[in-house]
Structure formats: structure tokens, C-alpha cells
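Here is my example:
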Amino acid sequence: MEYGNDPALNLFDPLIARWFAEEIGPPTDIQHKAWPHISAGEHVLISAPTGSGKTLTAFLWAINQLVTGAWEKGRTHVLYVSPLKALNTDIRRNLLHPLSALEQVFEEQGRPFPDIRVQTRSGDTPQADRRRMLRHPPEILITTPESLNLLLSSQGGRTLLRSLSTVILDEIHTVVNTKRGVHLITAVDRLVPLSGEFQRIAISATVKPMPVVAEFVAGLRMEGEARNPSYVPREVTLIRSDAAKAYDLSVRFPQESSEPQSAETFWQPLVQEFRDIIRKNRSTLFFVKSRRLSESVTLKINSAAEKPIAYAHHGSLAKELRLEVENKLKSGDLKAIVATNSLELGIDIGALDEVVLVQSPPSISSAVQRVGRSGHRVGETSRGTFYPT
């Protein structure tokens, strides 16, 4: 049964295709390009702008396979690895919503819907949840490079990873040229003797050059007998979106002061401009270079307000406090967050009006990621203001 004239959606179960078309809309450019290759089982490296639907691009075919029974329930078939614990929590939340909506669609049509469990495994995961995970493996496991290596170092963890069908490597650009990237990709290759060959899906908004990164993702496949093996690179399909991403960017400079320069006279006019930006927006995200500066700028912004209008966000904060800050901004109870790179990647903190980069970002890719937190949904414009100091 086909759903309309959309060849991309026709790859999926008709009820999944109907839910997607009615609730989300037409597939994006990257979804049209990627799904035929993903459904064919190819290894892929996907490059697409922020707000182009990359999460569902990577996950929807796996969800289709689990829903239709093509993959056996009660085993971990999908492993998602991202560089940030906070991003993992967000991905889990963003998967539970479509799974819940799909369950309702299937029930309305009288079709059974399997219990697809999505769980995270990181340093924040309680011991009780870790033990429960080993007894009842989730169909989709979300983790970090470090936690993946820890899983591989234990007998229970290796048992959990024996049935993988797909491994998704998100924000691959952040690790590809680092020791952490070596840590990640060697762990992925250590999965092969456990699970056999599985599909590799790597995703980024700013990956370049793609062929080099594809070689990193692919690794080598052993052929022949173990006593006399040969190693052949896996083929990886490169998929780049042609969709244009709209940006509204401006660069502003601190007002010059006639007074002798000090830390206070330097920051005073800047902070006043920050307050003006916060006042005109519903929600604003500021990026700074350090945890200390995050706390300092937040304190300066709040100093003239009756109640706090900005909260700091960085990796030293407890998980519960970070989540509270993110949820307050998303719900509209908070006007601004002053963050380090802890919020740089694809974390969903709601509809942001503007991103402000205080001091120059460390790289162009970092600037693209940060500004992309605003206008994060399909077709929206990302607004960013730079304050190079």
C-alpha cells in the first residue's frame, strides 16, 4: 500500500507514513535523500543543516523495523552515541513522543503496537536502572563514547550489545579529529565481533571534508580466515542536503568608554545591551567561553532585576539543575540562559528568538552549531548576534 505519491514515505509501514505526513508534514530534503539508502541497509554519512529533521532521518527506519516485527523485540537493536549526556536525555525525550503518537495511531486501527523501550546509559544513570537494563534490554540504547567503552569492559554490557542492527553516531564532527574520537570508533569496531556487521549512520550539520570523515566512520571489515585475514574498507554513502538554511546574523561591538578601562567599565555597556536583547525577546541563549564567565555574566545581568531573568548553564552543574534550567526556558518561565558549550549541540530547549555569542566562538562549525539553536525547526531562520570582545 502506498501513501500518496511520496516515494520516501512509501518505504515505511502505511500507518507510520500516514502519521508522519499528517503530524509532521512532507519529508525534508535530507529525509528524501537518506531514507532509500538507510532502508537498503547502507552505511551513510549525513550532512544537513540544523532544523532539517536529522533525528527522525536516522531513527525512523529503525522504528519501522521494530514496529513491524522485522527486528525481534526484547533485544537492543539500535545504539545511539552522542558526545553529550544532556543531548542523550533530549534525544530520548524526542523519541518517546513519536512512539507514543504512533501507538495511538496503531490502536485506533486495531493493530498491535510493541512496547519499544528507549533508555539512556551514562554517568548519570542510577545503578538500579543499569541493572534493570541488563535484565530487560531496551530496543533503543542511548549512550556516550565513555559509557560505551565501559559497557564493553563488562560481561553484562557485552551481552547487552550482541544483537545490534544499527549504530547511530551523532555530531560526529565534534570527535572525528580528537583522542575521544579514537576512543569512540575503536569501541564501535569492538562491537563487530559481538553483533556481527551492523549499519553505521553518522550525522552532523558541519562535517567537512566528508570523504575523510566517511573513512573514519567506516573502518575496515575483515575478510578471509582469521589465520590469514585481509581488511577491506566498508563503503559509506555520502548524503548532503541541498536545502538552504536561512541565517540572520549581525556583529556588534562594545561601546567605547571615555573612562579608564577596567573589568567593570568594559562589561557595563555590554551587559546593558544584553538586558535590552533579553527584554525584546521571549527567549534568548547566550554563549560564553568558560564556566566562570557564565556565572559572572549571569550575575551581572540579574543584578538590576527584581528577580532572576537569566540562569547559568555549564557542565559543572548537577544534572537535575541543568534539566530545570532547560525546562524553565522551554516553558517560558525563564527569559535567558548563559551557557558554555554545554548547550552547543542539538539539545531542544524550545523556540529560541535569538542566540548571542559573547566573544568569538572557537571555530566556524561551533558558530554554526550555536546559532542553529535558534530557528531550530524546519524552515525557520536562525538569528545570531556576535559580540567579539
